[in-house]
Amino acid sequence: MLSLTDSIRISSPLSDTRPSFLSQSGSRTRRQLKFVRSRQPRVSFPQRNICRCSATEQPPPQRRKQRPAKYKKELSEEEKGIDPVGFLSKYGITHKAFAQFLRERYKSLKDLKDEILTRHFSLKEMSTGYELLGMHRNMQHRVDFLEWAPGARYCALVGDFNGWSTTENCAGEGHSGHDDYGYWFIILEDKLRQGEESDKLYFQQYNYVDDYDKGDTGITVEEIFKKANDEYWEPGEDRFIKSRYEVAAKLYEEMFGPNGPQTEEELEEMPDAATRYKAWKEQHKNDPASNFPSYDVIDNGKEYDIFNIIGDPESFKKFRMKQPPIAYWLETKKGRKSWLQKYMPALPHGSKYRVYFNTPNGPIERVPAWATFVLPDADGEQALAVHWEPPPEYAYKWKHKQPVKPKSLRIYECHVGISGQEPKVSSFNDFISKVLPHVKEAGYNAIQIIGVVEHKDYFTVGYRVTNFYAVSSRFGTPDDFKRLVDEAHGLGLLVFLEIVHSYAAADEMVGLSLFDGTNDCFFHTGKRGHHKFWGTRMFKYGDPDVLHFLLSNLNWWVEEYHVDGFHFHSLSSMLYTHNGFASFTGDMDEYCNQYVDKDALLYLILANEILHTLHPNVITIAEDATLYPGLCDPTSQGGLGFDYFANLSASVMWLALLENTPDHEWCMSKIVHTLVGDRQNTDKMLLYAENHNQSISGGRSFAEILIGNSLGRSSISQESLLRGCPLHMMIRLITFTIGGHAYLNFMGNEFGHPKRVEFPMSSNNFSFSLANRRWDLLEDDVHHQLFSFDKDMMDLDKNGRILSGGLANIHHVNDTTMVISYLRGPNLFVFNFHPVNSYERYIIGVEEAGEYQVTLNTDEKKYGGRGLLGHVQNVQRTISRRADGMRFCLEVPLPSRSAQVYKLTRILRA
């Protein structure tokens, strides 16, 4: 199988995904494409031979000097080559049906890449469709619009710029306006101001970004060309030879052309080539001298009549030394000021528009699929695209570089709309000023934003996406979101988006459903095209044009908004035709039966390959309740290529324990098993105690369950405080430290937000009273103490690199005493979940002899605890006695419902 890198390197015929008019001899659209792409950061790929090699073929061995074994370089996954069932061998899985399924999927992936490369120059080009599709400024004083609507018969742009006319700006007839794949092309010419004349040059270009006035000096085009001719060309250099055989051709013309012999008798006997050439040269020996490069014609002693044309090196060197008259040619290019003086934009910044189609079912209007800014109307039944092209002086300019990819992730999940304290929809600017400083202070190194992509109804949180290339106008403009990302980067925070490619909104007037009047444009037809329970549409992942749309969408958010990664929402909805709503027993047959959508798997593989090749530092996180095998294994070894997967079962377990199980019946073994999961993939696991589901999806936050929804210490019972606050801290501490290298927390839960989130909807009379975050609670003792602990917990990783170290060595799990202990690096974690029993000298095994000091204790008074551990007890020395399979042990005091973190501060010799 060709890897993505290989596929991108392989040249193929020009993409026929572009309309035919984009590949015709007219170069205007090519210049526009070049202009648009020049504004995007590019990634260079090394060249590769065109031949396609078998996946099993290895490059010829190279002789190298033998190095000692200790210097032997470990091969990367890519260097090891392609093995479509590689991760099965690694984990010792011997399920034949699943292995065969992986091999068939691998072959399908190769076929899919071959199909893509017949229509696109490379996978890179296929994933940058936003450079052509949608609305783009062309340097030749016009705007170009390109849209995919294969079921439409007629296409036009309507908007406030043309009085909503359905005929003024339409696609041309035949291949001048659309191609065989259904891509429609419309040109909007800028309008001449009164008294101005159109440009005389067909190739006249304008720079819309830089504010210079080249071309406004009053010099005519004729004068420019005359100056260029006078200062650059010398006598005899006023033309180029079109072919190096021109001299030979002239010689043959004299011999055999109209002026040469016409009959065999006239031809007589033909002398050899050398004789003929010498005679020709003697004839022209008195010709005037010329600066034009001279040629000689020789035959190199060949018997047959073929000439070699040899140029004069000196004359060619002289010609190459000349500097072209670039300064004069620049006079034909004009700046933005001259364009504004001469033209009015065909589509001004801020113009509202839609695309109009005539279909077999009648005329329809739609928001363009590639629109980058959309305004839904008040009742959500209609929407308008907004042309976003601010003047250069107002366009956002990036200030900060993207942070370095960290070795561990401490993710702060948030929703912009509910991030404010006031009962309203908060904006990007509100989030920048109020939330980002809090996240930085709290010690997190990444934010994950949900609900950013434009969606129809606010109460859907953002999961029913209508416009995949647009930021939600509820929160601000595209430039506002750029500023949010930029400011986060300035604080050292990565920015992740929760991306929803597993389904889309079913609304026709504002989304993609029945986009071109047919039912088979972006989505499956029939039952398969509809989610069984959520009322959403399911993408047709096997269609190359749908892949073009979705893969370009991922690249768009990275290129345009500099996001650092994606959390792929609800993969189980797309991976199975039953949308994940089935009983899973863990049998491997469930991952390769008739209900598995192979096309969706291929899309995810392509998404990860393309993202990680074009953007090596990007991070992708998979959310899949079914834990599809190979989620985080390399695509070259049969995996899907994600960097992390979210362990959804951990949060479900904690919620079930808090709501349904008495404290003394909690099973320590079950807790550890759920948090650690499959040890083979623990290092790729993202854990969280509670994410937005506990706050948004109709549930209660853990703080509301543990200490109630009252506000302030005075309204919380002492019993609730003694139970709720310790458990709140312990649940977070063990979830944070026992798993992989990534942890997530939802906005406000770090300080025990006592209120659930409820978006305004008809059932609550569209109230905003619960659609906010009570940041003022940080002034209250209880919530401030919980926040202080969470902050110190983040510092534990920031300063001690807990998550970025090795995995936890869990060596003590006792269901009777309800004690859990494990080692991670030089740190010892001890948890006593028993609601009543405290232990004065509880024996815990350790591997290193020395002194262990408490670095974090949930029972400290500054966290609202009882402060039962004295100062002397903060340092413990090992005893030379085996315990828990370790060489040494500690006798540690363990108050009930408390947890301590010990760090080895001094090593003692045994």
UniProtKB/TrEMBL annotation:
Composition-biased stretches (Polar residues): 15-27
Tree of life domain: Eukaryota
Subcellular location: Plastid, Amyloplast
Domain named Glycosyl hydrolase family 13 catalytic: residues: 425-774
UniProt keyword Plastid, yes or no: yes
Major location (coarse): plastid
Descriptive protein name: 1,4-alpha-glucan branching enzyme
